[in-house]
Amino acid sequence: MTAESGVSAMQQEGGRRDAKPRSARRRSREFALQAIYAWLVQSDQDQIGAIEAHVRDDSQFAQADAAWFALIWQGVTQKADGLREAFKPFLDRPVVEVSPVEHAILLIGSFELTYQLDVPYRVAINESVELAKSFGGTDGFKFVNGVLDKLAPTVRAAEVNRGSARR
Q1: CA distance 136 to 82
Q2: pLDDT of 43-88, one tens digit each?
Q3: 48 φ, ψ to 5°?
Q4: Tens digits of per-residue pLDDT, 24-49?
Q5: Which has the closest alpha carbon to 120: 84, 156, 151, 94?
């Protein structure tokens, strides 16, 4: 499978269903989702450069935050095993049974929760839920929300506890 067919397959499987204006960071997450999806379905480490080049060649990529895309893309591809280990206890099925779209979204959300501490945990979860609503299966957003909501206290305990205390 080529990078192009992987991205095209993801778009066919769960293409955007909304028409809301999107921020540059949201667009970056969408492009990261496409790239990570292609990487997951290809299972070929040698294709990382080709996948990234294909995504960056998209005519809409100029509207994305390229640095944020690179941060997510590189972070997820380099730390995927650890990210999976972090969210695996909160899954209701083995990782191999999670759809590639939701798997990619969980990797993105887990990366942001774990390594991007400047992004509030609620924003990281919400952005992942929005990706799942736009690209995932019918109830994929509920699954993503549930997993990341359980992961957040393990990687952002102080922030989550501060948020709980305000209620």
Answers
A1: 23
A2: 777 789 999 999 999 999 999 999 999 999 999 999 999 999 999 9
A3: -55, -50
A4: 999 999 999 999 999 999 877 778 99
A5: 156
**Average model confidence (pLDDT) across the chain:** 88
Instruction: Quote the CA–CA distance of 125 and 133 in Å, as a whole number.
Output: 12
- Give DSSP secondary structure letters for 81-141: HHHHHHHGGG-SS-GGGS-HHHHHHHHHHHHHHHH-TTS-HHHHHHHHHHHHHHHS-TTHH
CATH topology of domain 3-9+22-156: N-utilizing Substance Protein B Homolog; Chain A (1.10.940)
Nearest to 104 by CA among 85, 77, 139, 122: 77
Domain ranges, ordered by start, for the chain:
3-9+22-156
